[in-house]
C-alpha cells in the first residue's frame, strides 16, 4: 500500500468514535456478512450501488478494497454499479488522487476504464456500469446502496445475499463551486472511515 494511503488509513482508524452509534449498528451488519464469508473460506464480494455509478459508489468500491488490504482480510473483491451507466466523475477521481492513489485510464473518451492503484500489485478497476453488468458478480455478494435513489429504484437485485442501505449526501451539489474540492474530499473521507470501521470488526 502506498505510504500516503497507509498514513491516511492510520489517521482515519483513530476517528471511529466520530461515527454515530446508530450508524455503527448498521455498518456492523456488513461486518457480520464479511466475517461469515471469511469463516467459510469464501470470497468476499461487495457491490456498491448508486444511481449513476459515478461518485459515491466508486468511493465505496475503492475504499472497501483499501480496507480489506489494510486489515489483511483475504479474498476481498469490490465492485460498483448503478441503475444507469454514465462515467466515473472527474471530481471524484481528483479527490482520490489528492489522497495518494495513482489513477490511469484506458484512453477512451466515453466512460473510460480507470485503474486505481492502491499500492504495488494492489489495484481495482473503476468504470460506470449498471449493477448487473457482466463485470460484476451475479451471485454470492452483498449490495451496499450508497444513495437513496438507488435504494428506491433497485427493488430487486438477483443473486444478492445481503442488501443494505448506507446512504451518503451527493457531493455533486458542490460541482463548480468554491467548496467543490473540500466537499468531495469530505465525502471520500466519510466513506473511507465507514469502510475501515466495517473491516476493523472482522477477526
Topology (SSEs and partners):
Elements: H1 3-13, H2 21-39, E1 44-49, H3 56-70, E2 76-81, H4 90-99, E3 102-105, E4 114-119, E5 122-126, E6 141-145, H5 148-153, E7 160-165, H6 180-200
Parallel strand pairs: 1-2, 1-6, 6-7
Antiparallel strand pairs: 3-4, 4-5
Helix pairs in contact: 2-6, 3-6, 4-6
Estimate the strand proportion: 15-25%
Which geometry do the CA atoms define? globular
Number of E strands: 7
SS element count, helices? 6
The description of the largest β-sheet is: 4 strands, parallel
The ordered string of helix (H) and strand (E) elements is HHEHEHEEEEHEH
Q: Structural class per helix/strand content? A: alpha/beta
The percentage helix is 40-55%
Query: Mean pLDDT across all residues, rounded?
Result: 95
Q: Low-confidence segments, ≥5 residues, pLDDT <50?
A: none
Terminal residue distance: 21 Å
**Rg to the nearest angstrom?**
16 Å
Major beta sheet, strand line-up:
2-1-6-7
Amino acid at each position: 500500500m502506498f505510504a500516503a494511503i497507509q498514513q491516511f488509513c492510520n489517521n482515519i482508524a483513530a476517528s471511529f468514535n466520530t461515527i454515530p452509534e446508530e450508524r455503527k449498528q448498521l455498518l456492523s451488519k456488513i461486518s457480520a456478512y464479511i466475517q461469515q464469508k471469511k469463516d467459510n473460506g469464501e470470497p468476499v464480494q461487495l457491490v456498491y450501488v448508486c444511481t449513476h455509478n459515478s461518485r459515491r459508489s466508486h468511493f465505496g468500491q475503492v475504499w472497501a478494497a483499501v480496507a480489506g488490504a489494510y486489515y489483511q482480510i483475504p479474498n476481498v473483491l469490490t465492485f460498483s454499479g448503478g441503475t444507469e451507466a454514465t462515467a466515473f466523475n472527474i471530481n471524484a477521481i481528483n479527490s482520490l488522487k489528492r489522497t495518494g492513489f495513482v489513477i490511469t485510464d484506458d484512453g477512451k473518451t466515453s466512460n473510460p476504464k480507470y485503474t486505481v492503484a492502491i499500492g504495488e500489485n494492489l489495484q481495482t478497476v473503476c468504470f460506470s456500469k449498471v449493477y448487473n453488468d457482466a463485470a460484476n458478480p451475479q451471485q454470492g455478494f452483498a449490495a451496499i446502496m450508497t444513495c437513496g435513489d438507488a435504494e428506491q429504484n433497485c427493488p430487486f437485485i438477483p443473486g444478492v445475499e445481503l442488501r443494505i442501505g448506507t446512504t451518503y449526501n451527493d457531493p455533486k451539489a458542490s460541482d463548480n463551486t468554491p467548496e467543490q474540492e473540500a466537499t468531495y474530499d469530505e465525502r471520500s473521507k466519510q466513506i473511507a472511515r465507514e469502510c475501515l470501521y466495517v473491516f476493523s470488526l472482522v477477526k
